[in-house]
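Lay summary. Proteins are chains of building blocks that fold into shapes, and those shapes determine what they do. In this project we predict the shape from the chain. Here is one chain we studied, written as its sequence of building blocks.
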Amino acid sequence: MRQKNVTYTKNNLKVFLKKLIKGKIFIISGLRSYKKSGAHKILSPILKKKKFETYFKNSEIPVINELEKIIKKIKLFKPNVIIAIGGGAVMDYAKIANYLCNTQNLKKNIIQPQNFKNFKYCKLIAIPTTAGSGAEVTSNAVIYINKKKFSVENKLVKPDNFLLLPNLILKNKKKLKTSSGFDAIAQAVESLFSLKSNNKSIKYATESLKITLKNFIPHIKKPTLENSKKMLIGANLAGKAINISKTTAPHALSYPFTTNFNISHGHAVGITFNEFLKFNYKNIKNTVIKFDLKSRFNILFKLSNTKNIFDLDDYFKKLKKEAGIKDSFLYFKINIKKNLKRITKDINFQRLSNNPVKIKLRDINKILLNKN
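And here is the predicted shape, written in a compact code that computers can read:
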């Protein structure tokens, strides 16, 4: 499904939405992000004389109980258009709700996806208020059931349209910019090394990193409409890359840290990001892929202006430090020995299987136990 209509100005948004929106509108957002981003000011004139209902999410991460509540409200309201305006969790709720709204057994069809004919409930428009997840262009969404992460994947999950508005991310808090921005960078890097990568995903990932590596720190420290716009584009390209290739080990291991220790997603990814870069390079001759892994590292060396894995490791350490991303277990007060089984049992093995080097549980244990 092809998505169109990327826009960067408030005026274009008004013109676009007036043409696109017909009938009843159901808005899914976060209460704070909806107001603080300025989304309510932009949408208010468009929503005049329109029948609409707004749902503000409660959970920081998308959980099954709230998803069921959202679906119930959608069925009662019967919208013609759903607008998801927010971060990754908002996008995940909207995408899954729109795709599985009419399923008979929601939880079962998420845990054990069935081959059944399905269709979108209505048109879905995605407007991100963070520059990170790229969820506005991906055909998968995340939901947690009993603290365990599940992915819902289908081409029908992807939103019909997306809009990128730098005004909406300009005033985000530093912590949010840091977390979401590093998530975009990690997605693009992981996409380069993914088992499922191809020429198209490499192109998206490379273009994304050209933009994000240059604008990440300025966007955090001295945000402007220009670097906000570039970070949105970079995150969008990273989303397009992982929509093809999917993510790998750092993302696979990030979810237990988010669910068990309440660490924001981008920071959770950053915890083992460098360790898996070094692990993959060290085991470069033991890959399970058809492409040349060294050539992918060479792309990253060039993009980061580094010459070897030691320089690259140092580059990302400095980037994380400058951005304020903490990757020390001591900082998060996590006793790895005590929590090792708790962490490893919640790993997303589907994402782990995309890693270019096969990773065994003993490898993960070693990485975690030996880390700072």
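What the prediction tells us: Strands lie at 25-30, 52-57, 81-86, 123-128, 140-145, 148-153, 161-162.
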